[in-house]
């Protein structure tokens, strides 16, 4: 059994609504573009069967106007008996800071496998750090754009 967890947190002076917009527009973090379609809390689930493995992919999103904003992407692989053989999840939570006027963005990545690890631990950490850096990079780039500019259409 192998379990690797990576957590990161950043605090920004920009309001939560702008931080959520930057996050949703981050290319490379999501399997598809969420920005034009996301309005309310939604859960999307896809199940595929590959050989004897059954894979469930779930996206959970709480929309921008809810507190806190939450995005979770998880993939669960099950063997032919239904036991979990591998689970990967990425969670992002953005919360407003009422007194300071800014916001906090938290990222948590988790990789869990039963049995011998099929991917070295260092490679798993590198992949999770890559996901976090894409997200935080999009936020940093967003800070450089004037607040009245339209970023994503």
From TrEMBL:
Gene3D superfamilies referenced in this protein's UniProt entry, alphabetically: 3.30.530.20
Any single Gene Ontology cellular-component annotation: nucleus
InterPro entries tied to this protein: Bet_v_I_allergen, START-like_dom_sf
Molecular function terms, GO-annotated: abscisic acid binding; protein phosphatase inhibitor activity; signaling receptor activity
Gene Ontology biological-process annotations: abscisic acid-activated signaling pathway
Protein name per the record: Bet v I/Major latex protein domain-containing protein
Organism: Eucalyptus grandis (Flooded gum)
Source lineage: Eukaryota, Viridiplantae, Streptophyta, Embryophyta, Tracheophyta
């Amino acid at each position: 059994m192998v379990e690797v967890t990576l957590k990161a947190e950043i605090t920004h002076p920009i309001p939560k609504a702008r931080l959520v917009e930057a996050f949703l527009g981050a290319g490379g973090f999501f399997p598809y573009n969420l920005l034009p379609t996301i309005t309310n809390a939604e859960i999307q689930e896809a199940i595929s069967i590959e050989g004897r493995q059954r894979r469930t992919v779930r996206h959970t999103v709480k929309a921008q106007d809810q507190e806190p904003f939450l995005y979770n992407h998880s993939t669960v692989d099950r063997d032919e008996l239904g036991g979990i053989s591998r689970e990967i999840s990425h969670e992002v939570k953005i919360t407003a800071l009422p007194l300071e006027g800014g916001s906090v963005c938290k990222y948590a990545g988790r990789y869990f496998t039963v049995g011998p690890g099929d991917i070295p631990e260092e490679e798993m950490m590198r992949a999770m750090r890559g996901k976090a850096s894409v997200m935080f990079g999009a936020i940093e780039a967003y800070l450089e754009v004037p607040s009245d500019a339209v970023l994503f259409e």
